[in-house]
Amino acid sequence: IRIVNHRHGVHVTKHLLAILLIIFSFSSQASNLINDERVTEQKNCFSWPFTDYDSWRSVMEKKFKRKISSEEKLKQTLSRFDSRFGKEKFDLYKANLSCSTFEYLVDGNVVKGYIIKPIVSSGKLPVLIYNRGGNGNFGGVVFGAMMNNLFPIANEGFVIIGSQYRGTFNSDSIVQDEFGGSDINDVIALMDFIPSIEGADEQRIGMYGASRGGMQTHLAVKKATNIKAIATISGQSDLLKGLTYRPEMENVYLHRIPNYEQNKVTELNKRSVLNWVNELSPSIPILLIHGDNDKRVSVKHSMDLADALSTNQIPHKLVIYPEDDHFLNKNKETAEKELVNWFKDYL
User: Fold this and answer.
1) Given the DSSP bridges, would you call strands 109-118 and 125-131 parallel, antiparallel or unpaired?
2) Which end of the chain is more exposed for a tag (fewer CB within 10 A), N or C?
3) What was the pLDDT predicted at 69?
4) pTM to 2 decimals?
């Protein structure tokens, strides 16, 4: 290899450039967290602006400034941002965790996903499939959501993989999120990639979901095999009855569920685990976590399901946090420990 120095720089031979390109290509492929050709566009979550905390904070400050004219309110907003995230926490997770976003095909549709795993482990790690809440782009798992909700769990020794569901963050997508319809296939498809994740134990797989993700979890487990334990956080169990608690959810159902107006009861019942508790496996224990001041998904969803699980002798645990909200803001760390201990016990 010949390198020739010139007054205005360094001239590198074509031979060296070719070698450098090969090395770069190899290292890029080697950095993929999922070694499966069906998974494409794998990108490090800690890419700009998330390369460091200051870069991320700077971008967020500019975003806040566009909406907040008062200097005092801007300071308060940034203070809340630092309190929720913070450089120390960011640096800890970046040092301990690998994280990538990716794309994969389901039913001919491009779907976006994400994977988080500890960088160092002494052996194979259990895998958790996470089902997000919300619908469409609302509730999509952006970096802040990962850091707030998923990094703490992964940092306890779990590989976490999840789907954004079809249509999310994809303006070109013809198909859209059906709120528990064909999008369940997007969750099931993730199972195929677990054997291709280095350090993941394909024999120890759990699944959990928050809010609408609780519904996704129960629906996915009906189709999936090899799930050892599940958990739901602020989850729904009876969508039809749920309309009496929160009637405005009908707008979501009208927008998302195909043929909703013609088949309302049938479609909602299909998505409601309370209607088919007797079909659940007694070998898959269920953890139910809920706040009793949840204004979005009533705690009665989890209470009613727990009663039905008892009747059908399905192993479960119900944890209710008094005066807490949909996001368990008053008991976040306690709920995370409950979740981590549950999966460590059963996986």
Assistant:
1) unpaired
2) N
3) 86
4) 0.90
